[in-house]
Amino acid sequence: MIHLHLAAIGALAITIGAIFALRPLAQAIRLVDKPGGHKVHAGEVPIVGGLGILLGTLFALSSSQDAFGPLQQYVFSAVLITVTGMIDDRFKLDHKIRLVVQVVALLPMFYGAHIQLLSFGDLLGTGPLHTDGWTIVATAIVVLGAINSFNMLDGLDGLAGAVSLSTLTLLLILCVHGGSFALPVGDPILIVSLIGSILGFLVFNAPIKENRGIRCFMGDAGSTLIGFSLAWLLIDLSQGTSRVAQPITMVWLTAIPITDLVWTVIRRLLKRKSPFHPDRGHLHHLLTDAGLAPFAVVLIMTSSGLLFGMAGLALELTKVPEQTSLLLWGVAAGTLVAAFKSAAKLRLWVKPLSAS
Q1: Distance in Å from the first CA to the final CA of the chain
Q2: Long-range contacts: 122-131, Cβ < 8 Å, 24+?
Q3: Contact at 8 Å (CB) between 18 and 52?
Q4: The model's pTM
Q5: Which residues of 105-144 are buried (b: 16+ CB within 10 A; e: fewer)?
Q6: Contact at 8 Å (CB) between 176 and 243?
């Protein structure tokens, strides 16, 4: 346990130090986010949070000889994902290029680390839905979905970081309860390293006035790194003999980004637009349109994520059938979207009345 605590503290310290050191460099190479269009922040904000999270995580992993070996494929893919994200933050890459790189990044995970989505679980009550014959396709769908769901979620200070922290904390609880705190050996270390690194980043990105002078963004480098890292953990901890939970439970633990992704794809397709076409219909946009301050939006969405996650853990521990868990998740996710939409519509309806 002690070395895990030290890994988290080391990741926290290195991330904070790295971001402070990288801020002047970001200004020099114009790796900054400028206000304009749908971006309403004040001034130019350095986009070095993603690199800071990566450096903090890699430092923590390197401090554990037991973890760095099994996670060497993760290290390669994480660096590739983060560097590509930084290039995208600076020069705006075409989404097709980003997708190709993301597919390349999952190959070491699939073939080297053998982290593969072998089964979706017994979602229909007819037995496990195995992915025989198309395992790599199923794995790719989950990995790309996780990467892009967190990329979409990163639209408000502290949001992606806080939501990912809630998921990682619940995963840590699962590891402890499942007796798999050291099996697979790399997963607990990776979890606590990410927790420490993301906490360090939130020093600069939490939606509070005290950090405005040192504010930075994680950018695509950070959001895609977090999405990939969670996909790695969620698949590894829900498959095979060493799994700590059913695959559907992992959906509960990532309910906010998954709900936002599914809602976004459906919404854009119904409007006959590309799923990659940006708009202001994300869950956090709905709460913002309802008149809530950024801190309140982050608090509500993170709390919702924790509630979903704890519900999933309760369903897992009480051995509720997986098909029932899936049905309950669908109802809960639909209710969440409907509630957020209603809040936004109520604001739009009340505002003209209050002004008259």
Answers
A1: 61
A2: 122/321, 122/322, 122/323, 123/248, 123/322, 123/323, 123/326, 124/323, 125/321, 125/322, 125/323
A3: yes
A4: 0.92
A5: bbebbbeebebbbbbbbbbeeeeeeebeeeebebbbebbb
A6: no
Q: What pLDDT, in 10s, does the model give residues 266-280?
A: 988 888 887 777 778
The lowest-confidence range among 230-234, 262-266, 303-307 is 262-266
Q: Are 312 and 306 in contact (CB under 8 A)?
A: no
Q: How many CA atoms lie within 13 A of 332 on its CB side?
A: 21
Task: Give 232: exposed, middle or buried? Use CB within 10 Å, 0-12, 13-18, 19+.
Answer: buried
Over 70: is that where the pLDDT of 113 sits?
A: yes
For 132-185, the pLDDT digits (tens) are 999 999 999 999 999 999 999 998 999 999 999 999 999 998 888 765 544 445
Distance (Å, rounded) from C-alpha 155 to C-alpha 149?
Answer: 11
Can you tell me the distance from the alpha carbon of 41 to that of 64, in angstroms, rounded to the nearest whole number? 39
- Residue 65 tokens read as 């000889």
Per-residue tokens: 219: 């950018």
Measure the CA dihedral 266/139/223/168, to 10°.
110
Q: How far is 49 from 216, CA to CA, in rounded Å?
A: 6
Task: Give the 3-state secondary structure of residue 33.
Answer: strand
